[in-house]
């Protein structure tokens, strides 16, 4: 019998564990960071180990050297990206939390990638605008957006300007725990994510693909 693949295979916990057991190659430093972050009140903000590994693959496929991160938290995604970057690779990391990024700095140092990461503690829109003012338009190979949802569209537009042709933007939380299809969910964050998802679908400046990894990850390739 032929099995049709018109829908995604549901991933229950046992299947998720199987996927991890046959694909995940999580470095010890990332495992420790993930476990430390899991004890924090906002632990849900951390990406999964599988997503971190996937992002590392994207960095290698792009042969990326200059990347951008909007939303650092405790540093799992930036550490995963930094480990995948070449020795001369660099990340501009945007966040507003001194508390959480102190954890990130510690792990960047332990992982030996601190020199690759430039942390800018300021509202990300200000940082992105300053990068444009510094002449960085078209300079970045990759951008990861995982911050406050109401500003997603503003981050996307600025990141797109900073990205080179053939560069890639990865936008996290695009399924928003399933709330994007729940019409009773009308909070500002959910509406902002829905709006960006619909905009990306129509945006002819990019080629897009939405992946059901983690809480949903959209890849936008700049044409």
Commentary on this structure:
The protein has about 220 residues and is α/β, with parallel strands linked by helices. Helices cover about 40% and strands about 20% of the residues. The protein starts with 12 loop residues before the first helix and ends with a strand. It has a 7-stranded mixed β-sheet, sandwiched between helices. The longest helix is centred in the C-terminal third of the chain and has 15 residues.
Task: Give the amount of beta strand, in percent.
Answer: 15-25%
Q: Determine the number of helices (DSSP H or I, runs of at least 4 residues).
A: 8
Shape: globular
Average residue-wise pLDDT: 95
What's the helix-strand series? HHHEHEHEHEHEHEE
- Order of neighbouring strands in the sheet with most strands: 3-2-1-4-5-7-6
Oligomeric state of the chains? single chain
Helical fraction: 40-55%
Which residues sit in consecutive blocks of at least 5 with pLDDT less than 50? none
Return Rg in Å: 17 Å
Distance between the termini: 40 Å
Q: How would a textbook summarize the main sheet?
A: 7 strands, mixed
Derived from helix and strand composition plus strand pairing, the structural class reads alpha/beta
**Quick one: how many beta strands?**
7
């Amino acid at each position: 019998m032929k099995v049709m693949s018109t829908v995604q295979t549901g991933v229950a916990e046992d299947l998720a564990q199987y996927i991890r057991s046959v694909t995940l190659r999580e470095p010890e430093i990332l495992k420790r960071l993930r476990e430390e972050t899991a004890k924090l009140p906002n632990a849900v903000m951390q990406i999964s180990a599988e997503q971190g590994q996937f992002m590392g693959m994207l960095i290698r496929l792009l042969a990326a050297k200059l990347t951008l991160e909007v939303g650092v938290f405790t540093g799992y995604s930036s550490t995963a990206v930094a480990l995948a970057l070449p020795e001369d690779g660099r990340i501009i990391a945007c966040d507003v939390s001194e508390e959480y990024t102190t954890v990130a700095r510690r792990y960047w140092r332990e992982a030996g990638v601190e020199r690759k990461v430039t942390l800018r503690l300021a509202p990300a829109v200000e940082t992105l605008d300053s990068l444009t003012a510094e002449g960085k338009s078209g300079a970045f190979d990759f951008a990861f957006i995982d911050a406050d949802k109401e500003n997603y569209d503003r981050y996307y537009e600025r990141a797109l300007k900073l990205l080179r042709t053939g560069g890639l933007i990865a936008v996290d939380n695009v399924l928003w725990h399933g709330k994007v299809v729940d019409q009773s969910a009308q909070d500002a964050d959910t509406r902002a994510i829905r709006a960006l998802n619909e905009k990306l679908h129509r945006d002819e400046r990019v080629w897009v693909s939405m992946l059901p990894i983690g809480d949903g990850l959209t890849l936008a390739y700049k044409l």
